[in-house]
Amino acid sequence: MARPSTDRLPAWRLAVFAALAIPLAGAGLPLAVYLPPYYAQDLGLGLGLVGLIFMLSRVWDAITDPLVGVLSDRTRSRFGRRKPWIAAGAPLFVIATAAIFAPHLFGMKPGAIWLSVWLVIFYIGWTMIQIPVSAWAGQLAAQYHERSRVQTYFQVATAAGLLLVLILPAALDQLGASAGRPADAEMKVAVMGGFILVTFVPAILGALLLVHEPPAPPPHPQQTGFRRDLALAARDPLLLKVLTSDFAVTLGQLIRSSLFVFFVSAYVGRPDLAAGLFLLQFVFGVFAGPIWLRIGYRLGKHRAAVVGELAQVAINLGLLAVTPGALPLLFALTVAQGLAQGSGNLMLRAMVADVADKQRLETGVDRTGLLFSIFSLTGKAATAVAVGVALPLVGLLGFKPGAINTPESLLALKLVFALGPAVAHLASAWLISGFSLDETRHADIRSQLEQRDAALAPAE
Predict the structure, then answer these.
(1) I want to staple 432 with a disulfide (CB 3.0 to 4.6 A). Which of 120, 181, 228, 245 is the partner?
(2) Cα 343 from Cα 291, distance rounded (Å)
(3) Does 206 lie in the same domain as 237?
(4) Contact status, residue 343 vs residue 324, Cβ threshold 8 Å
(5) Whether residue 414 has pLDDT greater than 90
(6) Which residue has the higher pLDDT, 163 or 60?
(7) Torsion of CA 322, 326, 332, 335, to 10 degrees
(8) Are both 285 and 430 inside the same structural domain?
């Protein structure tokens, strides 16, 4: 069994650093699930207009993600490369979160312009934090397995953030029912915004003040332009394997998530269990990271990713055996899905930093931030494709949410819910199976990089 390096980062420091994932992950779910209906229905902007605003605001990501990635790679300051960007993005993130989640605090009844402007500011601030943090996490450790350990802390924090944000609306409903005053949408959205800010402020301060940023490598004497950097990074065959595999992973996860409530409510016939089962998956997802870290120690990153994806194939195929009366099987598969959750994402994220090392050895240019920005865009594209394909497909096959459906349309829902993710995860396993940058090759790359950096370092 391959053992992690003895040069391990302190657990408390990793926990402080990874705490940033709690508000960042916690912000994503309300933006996708709670805020659109709140602005469309409760604030009266309409579904069409709100959908257009949210869609167009994400177009910024295609521009800002790689731009921030490249600029943070090239930044040189006494505080580091990543920290200045994170510090600059933090106030944008805080103010925009307050404006979007609690507009009444500003004495405003927001309209389309208010939502549009603050969403753009929010996503710019989020990108200025998320991309440099991802690159920083990739470079926080240089050793092969230690990088997996860093990503495991982030995986656990991400799962915890998603779980806590899912619990909040349910807790407010229970408290409101006990008090005889049900929680309205405005209260739920404001509390979720408060959760994001309360967890974000200490997390950002802890990361900036208590966690070191590794020194930047010596700059390449001939810097290339943004377009050439992007082209050179994207042509790397190993990076393409990681990106396409992650696209398939995310596609499978989001197909399942977008159809989960429909499957449990309509096919299984238990709408009362839909929210609880969805939450159960995230409860066990908190424990997934350490399990897959140990598997990664034994098998290596890309083999652990393959095993994790094949496990998800088996779990999703198991859903074909679920019938309306087979609740124990559905519960067991939901727990298994939680324990397998993020196995591929965890390893693939750690592999991006290894590819960045290989590219720096070949070209002399550090593109870690750029590579993580491309990785981020791939996941966002898969999210859009999953929602844009799964929901229309089950509709074309005859399924109608909230209506009485025929047995044939319910069977179609089940087949898409089970086979769609299974095929996507199988594709992910196949795409990454031939990844050649293993622990031995990476150790050789790191050795050559350290020798070259030492030779290029200015004399004391």
Answers:
(1) 245
(2) 9
(3) no
(4) no
(5) yes
(6) 163
(7) 70
(8) yes
pTM above 0.85, yes or no: yes
Q: Is 218 helix (H, G, I), strand (E, B) or coil?
A: coil
Q: Say which residues have a Cβ less than 8 Å from residue 334's Cβ, sequence separation at least 6.
A: 277, 280, 281
What proportion of the chain, given as a percentage, has pLDDT over 90? 55
All residues at 6 or more sequence positions from 449 whose CB lies less than 8 Å from its CB, including other chains? 217, 357, 360, 361
Least confident span in 5-9, 296-300, 303-307, 411-415: 5-9
Question: What single-letter DSSP state applies at residue 9?
Answer: P
* Mean pLDDT across 415-444: 95
**pLDDT at residue number 156:** 93
Q: For the domain that residue 90 is a member of, what is the CATH number?
A: 1.20.1250.20
Judge contact between 132 and 266, C-beta under 8 A: no
DSSP state of 184: -
- Extract the tokens encoding 5: 């390096």
Query: Other CB atoms closer than 10 Å to residue 42's CB: what's the count?
Result: 12
Query: What confidence score (pLDDT) does residue 89 get?
Result: 97
Tally of structural domains, the chain: 2
Residue 241 structural domain: 226-435
User: SS3 breakdown of the chain: % helix, strand, coil, rounded to 5?
Assistant: 80, 0, 20
Task: At 275, list the tokens.
Answer: 């929210």
Start-to-end CA span in the chain (Å): 41
Domain end marker among 153, 176, 210: 210
